[in-house]
Amino acid sequence: MYGGDGNHSYAKNSTYQRGLLDAATKIIEEEIATKLEIPTSSKHFCIADFGCATGSNSFPAMHAIIKDVKQKYKSAHLKTPEFYVYFNDVVSNDFNTLFSSLPPNRGYEVAAVPGDFHRCLLPPSSIHFAYSSCSLHWLMEVPKAAEGLKSPCRSGGEREEVYEGYLGQFERDLESFLKCRALEMVEGGIMALLIPGVPTYWDPQREFTSVSLAELLRSSLLDLTKKGRLSETKLAKFNLPYFFPTPEEVRVVLEKSKSFSIERMEILKSAALLSIDGYVACFRAAHQNMFSHKFGAETVDEIFDLLKMKLQTFPVFANPCNDKSIVVVAILKHSNV
Ligand SMILES: C[S@@+](CC[C@H](N)C(=O)[O-])C[C@H]1O[C@@H](n2cnc3c(N)ncnc32)[C@H](O)[C@@H]1O
């Protein structure tokens, strides 16, 4: 299981996600106001964040959700419940940083839930609101067809074997995630998923996406292998363990679920707007533990220096407005449909 890069320093790069969070928060606020069923039989309200990292983006999200839920209780003339927030991430995540930076006077109790979110992690029917931001594109494993750093591509409208492998793995992983959450969530509970993705089409001469950046990273790894700087044997079974879906690809999986109904789906423009150095820093934060574990810590500088050089070679990356990456926001309701 890959599960991202648990100890990475997202805090350093988190400001770029704030714009995204603000837009998503607005959608969540409207959905809580209109769709959330107040659990009248319970004095507490439980929220879980799946893939919380070290908390820098999770805390403002949890704060906003709790504010909206409190408002909903107030409008219904009900007493404010006690709030509990469960922070989930992979076992190697830096939960110490998360717990030592918890906001003071936050008004909720907390617990860490380390483990793979493709498995059940919480007691049955215990969660009223589930949240996951920028985490579900990480795959449980690299598909066999993609090993050896093969590129997932569509040619002439056809999806090739490597692309199919990645898409299949993404679908299976998202299905497992939904099945587990269906057991853990109360009937009527709401789930907000923010999934980084790409549009169906972009013009590579004038535009780029996260897929374009991942492609340059692959090409950097391949170049360094040819130069003998990375082990060919290690690369033979390796590839990047994530997949950026189109909104349609996300919708297909969500619509298949018998436990959740889609209440709303929105496409937000990625709020990245980063310089080349910003993209390199962001990619480095997300990959460096994985690369130093796989290829050795001494290779990391070289990999990202080469990535930076490649980004500088193509004028398209110089203007952040050319970044067409998106984030799919899906609001689901647990309803055993
Ligand atoms: C890009 S970070 C997103 C962090 C935060 N949610 C945000 O919006 O900034 C992705 C996080 O998902 C976690 N993650 C990836 N796969 C996971 C899995 N299978 N189980 C639990 N956490 C996972 C990673 O460890 C990482 O902390």
TrEMBL record:
Coiled coil: none
Source superkingdom: Eukaryota
Record-level GO BP terms: methylation
GO molecular function term, any single one: metal ion binding
UniProt entry keywords in alphabetical sequence: Magnesium, Metal-binding, Methyltransferase, Transferase
UniProt protein name: Jasmonate O-methyltransferase
Organism (species): Salvia splendens (Scarlet sage)
Family named by the database record: Belongs to the methyltransferase superfamily. Type-7 methyltransferase family.
